[in-house]
Every structure is written in structure tokens, then in C-alpha cells.
């Protein structure tokens, strides 16, 4: 009898891709298609049939990018479909536009989220699947998609308690074994959207069940081969307190932004001579599953995509349609403002601005921080955006750069020093002047830089500043942890959410405008507060937008609207809707009913005195006298 041949599976993997313009996506698709073609050196399937090859993606494609501010991520659908993706793990940025937005796209492959459930239904989050089996070249390839516990906190449009994230090691073991024992998988691949330390833990603790771990979330390429040496090293590192693992799975990460992909060739042992029977014991089944997870990496390569390489014409044409649409849709309406929005440098770089208040408030709420601080250099249009319709061109003019954002932990003393830096160059129109939310303070312009902020005036999160207390601060990564533009006091602050898990400002603002449009669409002339609230909750549950803010309103954050909800009193629909939207979506003072638009709710951005300047006229007069 001939000895059964070993079997081979080729995997092409990539992760975290954002910018498909300028030929990036089309060159990548062409490279993947070339790598997918059989060649004289490419092994065929185990029976001489089709080649056993899969293309796998570990998440983050739809946001953030300039194009996504218009397309809400839809421009990436043809790119991933044409790349021949067979299966993908859900990334945090894939739902930046809301769950309904993600679910409404025409994907040619399944998305997986094995260990994250919708808390209300128990179903896999965002309509994903828990696992899939791909049949390629006579092999059955089982795939699972795992996220880390911190993942739920990185979703701007979904409240954390609306998602149940189960332990990724336990779920990996359970689903990998089910794929082998119940669906006949020959090999199990774990796609992940986790940081490298969690991938390493998965490799160590679930390596007996998972053949290879293909990760995303990190943007740096990495390859850790696992195997006996890694198992021995892990045991030694624990001082002998950790038993030698049965197997440490290899870990692969493939870089970012269509610049590279990984090629992994797994070699599988020949199929077992005897199959399991219904009488197989649980212990024997577990042993068989462990023995089956014995694939080894026969080849690994990180393949760079050349910048001058050929482009896939179909992908290039699809991307061109979207980029052309970007310009064509510059006039598309996003919402309406009841007031002029002042982004002139003379305003935002010297004093509180109604636009600065609006953006900082929405930003702080979206990132669920105690406070927000944006350097005024963030606002780039240097113009007044007149009351009335807000269009895409306004958003692009305001935020042409996709600045990374973060949530950091800072002490009250650090915040005080940051505010001193922000006002230290006043009255020069420098980009460090702060626009804030959750912070109120005054500064005396007559005092020297570094000693201008009036300590007793500073409030954070609704209470007097406590210099010893730790606060969460939403800001740009440029400000913290990088500490640029003089914000040395915030350099190196501990990250609560790093830039890879935070939405960019254009997406935050556009999501808020979409939510306000949804409130307007749900309103009916005769709706009472209970009916309105029921519609809002249903829409929030369906779209992922507003779940947090509804809960805030119901818990008391909604003030009078919340009380009326509880009492069930019927009042005029306009007042109910305005009150509810103010507290549920944007906050007090940011939403109003516009009688010229039939009572539709619009942005009402007005300053509220959160930044006060003391002695301004005297300081300017003294400055003029000196010059």
C-alpha cells in the first residue's frame, strides 16, 4: 500500500487596510491574483486536483480614510471582493459607521466574530458568523475569528454593555474542536483582531487546537514560528511553574495599508487511517483533535507589493468611480445648522468657538471620556460656515487630515499644565490654543505665560479640578501621548484607547449628524414621548448608533425628558423630540427645532462660557503699547 502523501495548504493573509486610492488597492489586488495562480512550483491538491489555497483577512478596512467620510466604507467592498477574500475577522473600525451600515454591504465572503455576542439576542455581533469551513483542493479548512476583551470598548457607535465578549482562549478551543469533530476540518485557522500579547497567549494556551494564528489590529508585520522551542521557552520563562505546552501555534501579522501580504504554506500530516466512530470517548476525541492540530509551517514570506507594480483594471475602475464620486458628492447635505459655525483662525486660535464646542462635545461623548481637548490647529478651514445646510465639502474643509485620536489617562495636575500651554501663547494665533469639552476654566491674559490659568476656576467632569485625581481625556495622538505643540505635560500618558481603536474626527461628526437625521426621520406629527422613545430605541438597536446615549437619558442624563419618559406624560411632540435628542445625542444646547424647516431638529452650536478670558482689553492695550 502506498504511503499517504502529506498535504499542503497555502494561505495569503493581510490585515488593516485603509487607503485604496492612488492605485494602492488595485496594485494589491493584482498581486494577490498573481500569487493565487497555480505555477509549476505550486503544489496541487492532495489528489492532484485544484490547488489548496485560501485568502484571509484579519479586519479593519472600512474606516478611516478621506474617501470613507463620503462612502461610509462602501468603497472597500469591491477591493476586498476582487482580492478573492474567502473569509474575514471583524475589526473595530469596520463598524465605525454603525452596525446597520456594515450589515448593508454586499460582501462576497463571510465575516466572523466567534467570541462576541449581541447582549440582547445572544447572536454573533453585527450579523457575523462564528466559524466557517472552506473546501479547497481536497482539504476542509476551518476558520474562526477572535477579538480581545478591550475590543468592545473601541467601538464608537456601540455601547460596551451591548456586547458580550467571551474569553478568546476558551472559545478558540471550543470552536476549533467542534470544527474538527463535527465538521471534519483538516486544519483550523484563527483570524484575530487583537494585540500581539493576546495573540501570543492564544498561541500558547490554544496551540493544541489551532494550527496557525493570523492577526490584525497591530500594524507592524510579525512572524513567530511557535513550535517546540517556543514551548520550552515559555515553560522556562515561568521558572518551571508552567507545564510544557503541548504545542505553541505560529503567529503571523502582515503589516498594513496594502503594502504587503503574508504567504504561509502549512504542511499537514497524512490523513489518519481510521476515522472516529460514534462510540469514541470524549477523552479519545480530545486526543485525536490535539494530534490533528499538527500542521507545520513549511514556508513563510512577507511579500511587499511594489509601488510601481501593475494594477488590476477592474479594481482600478471601481475605486475610480468612488474617488470621482468624492468630488461629485462634495455638495451632498449632511445636516443643518441653526447658527454660523465659526472656524476662523482668529476665533478658534484665541477663544472659545461654537464650532469648537460642538466638535469637542460630540468627540468626548463618542469616546466616553471625562473630558476632551483638541488643539485648535485641528480646524483647518479658516472660515465661517454659514447657518443652513452643512455639506460634505464643509467636513472635508474642516478636517482635511485624518488625525489619529486617542483616549489617555491624565492627572488633574497634567490637565492644568496642558491648559497653561494652550493659553500661553495668547494672543498669537497659534494652533495650540485649546477647544475643550467637559472642562471649564478662566485665564488672566495679563499674567505671564505659564501662570495664566486661574486655578480656582477650573472644573473637570462637572466638579472642581482635583490635581491628584486621574481623568480620562479624549484628544489627538498629536497632543497625547506624543506631547507635540508644547503639550509636554501630556507626553507619554497611559493609553485607555490607542489610535488604532479610536475613530477620526470626520467620522465622529458625520455619525452624529446621521443620528440626528435618524431622529428627524422617526418623528411623526402626533407621536407621544413613549412612541418616539420606542422608535429611537429600535433604531439604535438596529444601527448601533446611540445605544449609550439612550441609556444615559433613561438613567437620568436626559433631565426633564427622562422624567417625562418615566411618568409617561403626553406633551407636545416637538418639545419631547428636542429634549430627548439634546440629551440622547448631542447634549444640552447643541440641538434645536428649526421653524423654517418645519420644526426639524438641527445643530444649534452656541458658546456656553467654558473658556473665559480675564483682562483681555488691558492685555491687548499693554501689548500694543509695547510695540
Helix/strand layout:
Blueprint: E1 7-14, H1 24-36, E2 53-57, H2 68-71, H3 76-82, E3 87-89, H4 99-103, E4 111-112, E5 116-118, E6 131-136, E7 139-147, E8 163-165, H5 168-183, E9 187-194, H6 196-205, E10 212-217, E11 222-224, H7 227-237, E12 251-253, E13 260-268, H8 282-292, E14 296-304, H9 313-328, E15 333-337, E16 341-342, H10 345-348, H11 354-367, E17 371-375, E18 384-385, E19 388-391, H12 392-398, E20 405-411, H13 412-424, E21 434-437, E22 439-444, E23 459-460, E24 463-464, E25 470-476, E26 494-497, H14 505-522, H15 529-543, H16 547-557, H17 559-567, H18 573-586, E27 591-594, E28 600-603, E29 611-614, H19 616-626
Parallel strand pairs: 1-2, 2-3, 3-4, 7-9, 9-10, 10-12, 17-25, 22-29
Antiparallel strand pairs: 1-13, 5-8, 6-7, 11-12, 13-14, 15-19, 16-18, 17-21, 20-25, 20-26, 22-23, 23-24, 27-28
Provide a descriptive summary of the structure in words.
The chain is globular, with a radius of gyration of 27 Å. The model is unreliable at 286-293, 524-530, 543-574 and 576-580 (pLDDT under 50). Helix 1 (24-36) runs antiparallel to helix 9, helix 14 (505-522) packs antiparallel against helix 18 and helix 16 (547-557) crosses helix 17. It has 3 domains: 7-324, Metallo-dependent phosphatases (Purple Acid Phosphatase, chain A, domain 2); 330-502 and 609-626, 5'-nucleotidase,  domain 2 (Alpha-Beta Complex), CATH 3.90.780.10; 508-603, no CATH class. The protein contains 19 helices and 29 strands. The strands form 8 sheets. The protein has a 6-stranded mixed sheet, covered by helices on one side. It has a 6-stranded mixed sheet with strand order 6-7-9-10-12-11, covered by helices on one side. A 5-stranded mixed sheet has the order 21-17-25-20-26. With 627 residues, it is of the alpha/beta class. Helix 1 (24-36) links the parallel strand 1 (7-14) and strand 2. The chain is 33% helix and 22% strand.
